Structure to design on (201 residues):
């Protein structure tokens, strides 16, 4: 891969593993901030409200020099869940990724070693099947435009993997887009053709 690129999840995926009647449901997906990671965990708790544990780990940024990583045992014995999940993520060298492993207790205690193997195994399974995409460096652009141009710009953004981060309405519209650096030239062309003012960070 070119410099500044690394593999990231292309979509969210789930995989289930059963160990001595306990169910371990591993859900992996893409996150780019702690806020997004915690929202991903909250969603798993909402989807599986009756599970006994929702253990997780995430790694944000280039896996070779991650900007941030965190983990939680979520009530399991210390070191038996979050750390094994994170270890597998680091071994796979995937960035901007979170794995939540949801556990339904089956009535048979697994012991510390059994828990480590189960959480690592569930993570290994879901990451082995997870579709990956190359991360591209992103940039932010602010655009000043007329109200009539907002919908065409949003349509352009949706087709170029750009996300709308902020919108302010006044005499016109000021809109902040986050987009892959490779799409900036196309955005500049789009803006010039419509008389939209563009500023990049």
């Amino acid at each position: 891969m070119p410099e500044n690129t690394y593999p990231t999840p292309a979509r969210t995926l789930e995989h289930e593993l059963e160990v001595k009647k306990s169910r371990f449901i591993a859900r992996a997906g893409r996150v780019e901030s702690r806020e997004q990671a915690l929202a991903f965990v909250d969603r798993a708790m909402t989807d599986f409200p009756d599970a006994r544990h929702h253990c997780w780990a995430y790694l944000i940024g280039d896996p070779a020099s991650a900007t941030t990583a965190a983990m939680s045992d979520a009530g399991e014995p210390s070191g038996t869940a979050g750390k094994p999940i994170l270890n597998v993520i680091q071994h796979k060298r995937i960035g901007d990724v979170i794995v939540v492993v949801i556990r339904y207790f089956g009535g048979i205690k697994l012991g510390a070693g059994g828990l480590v193997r189960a959480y690592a195994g569930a993570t290994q399974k879901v990451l082995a099947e997870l579709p990956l995409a190359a991360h591209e460096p992103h940039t932010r652009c602010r655009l000043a435009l007329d109200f009539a141009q907002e919908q065409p710009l949003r349509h352009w953004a949706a087709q170029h993997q750009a996300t709308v981060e902020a919108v302010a309405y006044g005499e016109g519209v000021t809109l902040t887009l986050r987009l892959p650096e490779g799409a900036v030239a196309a955005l500049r062309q789009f803006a010039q053709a419509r008389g939209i003012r563009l500023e990049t960070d």
Observations:
- DSSP finds five helices and eleven strands in the chain.
